[in-house]
Design a protein that fits this description.
Rossmann fold, two-stranded antiparallel sheet, binds flavin-adenine dinucleotide
């Protein structure tokens, strides 16, 4: 029995893990300037830099640690977004990922979390990974629904609030979870979805060798738009072409995508601007602090 087990472990080691990291390109809502909102109260995406969603970087680091530990493992970034989102696939490659897929199609536009999860789940199915690692939450949509919804649609087990993937043995993954009041260590069989918290290890920086290796990586649309003549390099090195998948590539039902597939309806978006009359200037005297506490209790802000 022990012999069979050790043989199985060896096979796992030889085979390596196929890991997919879900990553979203988001507007940097942490650096909101005066142009960040339009007059109608919607986000002015053009005025905010587009970044790798922070918790997705934590997710990538967990994936790269598995790749370091289990020989032969591969890490692919999957992102759904406009053609510009290929930037974060390249960024992932500069940090150690092997490649990625850009899920992009006009028919995905306007998707809420349900439609987004549907599209992503179809792409994940096609990629057929052992582990899917996502961030807990995107800083723009902020719902934390996509990871769990993708797992649900694929009928997979899921471990949320992950802080550290501790080990994988016999196709069972053990994960430390960070909860509000402490930690918990749980195990689950693969294939599995793991969503990672910001409390997990920070993502490693770009690696100079990887930057040299992947600096010419371009998505199919970027290749069509480019005036650069890198066609020869790409014929010799197909890993530099970032594939783009649309509705037909993942065999999606259009009715379940975009606005038609999105039961969430945004009724109203409000831009809340604090006015000077809502501000109080306080000194550090006991009298001022007592006055503030009294006011907060009276208007039920605390109690
Ligand atoms: C009615 C409605 C219409 C919308 N229309 C648009 C629109 O036209 N354009 C638009 O950009 N947004 C639109 N959104 C927002 C969009 O639906 C959400 O941003 C998206 O569903 C992801 O949800 P989230 O940001 O809350 O992600 P969360 O659930 O907080 O994300 C959790 C994790 O899932 C993964 N993930 C999430 N999104 C992606 C992704 N796109 N690719 C890869 N991984 C991902 C990441 O790992 C992330 O950390 C709309 C939302 C609603 C409600």
């Amino acid at each position: 029995m022990a012999l069979i087990l050790s043989k199985l472990l060896k096979i796992r080691k030889m085979k390596g893990l196929k890991i997919v990291v879900l990553a979203k390109q988001v507007p940097d809502t942490r650096n909101v300037g005066k142009d960040a909102m339009k007059a109608d109260g919607t986000v002015n995406r053009g005025a905010l830099p587009a970044i790798f969603n922070p918790e997705d970087l934590n997710a990538l680091e967990q994936a790269l640690r598995l790749k370091d530990r289990y020989e032969g493992s591969t890490v692919s970034i999957l992102t759904m977004g406009p053609t510009r989102a290929s930037e974060i696939i390249r960024e992932g490659m500069f940090r150690g990922a092997d490649g990625g897929v850009l899920l992009t199609d006009r028919k995905f536009a306007g998707s809420d979390t349900l439609a987004t999860s549907y599209a992503i789940s179809l792409a994940v199915k096609k990629m057929n990974p052992d582990i899917i690692i996502a961030g807990r939450q995107a800083i723009d949509g902020d719902t934390a629904q996509v990871g769990p919804q993708v797992a649900d649609k694929l009928g997979l087990n899921q471990i949320t609030y992950a802080e550290e993937i501790q080990e994988i043995e016999n196709d069972v993954i053990t994960v430390k979870r960070r909860l509000e009041r402490g930690v918990e260590v749980v195990s689950g069989p693969m294939p599995i979805m793991v969503t990672v918290n910001a409390s997990a290890a920070e993502c490693r920086s770009r690696n100079a060798k990887a930057v040299m290796k992947f600096k010419h990586a371009r998505s199919v649309t970027e290749l069509q738009d480019t005036t650069e003549d890198y066609i020869d390099i790409r014929t010799e090195r197909p890993e530099l072409v970032i594939p783009e998948w649309g509705v037909t590539d993942v065999d999606a039902d259009v009715a379940e995508l975009g606005l038609s597939g999105s039961p969430t309806k945004v009724k109203k978006i409000e831009n809340v601007v604090f006015k000077a009359k809502e501000a109080m200037v306080l000194s550090d005297s006991d009298a001022d602090i007592n006055e503030l506490m009294k006011g907060l209790i009276e208007n039920h802000t605390i109690g």
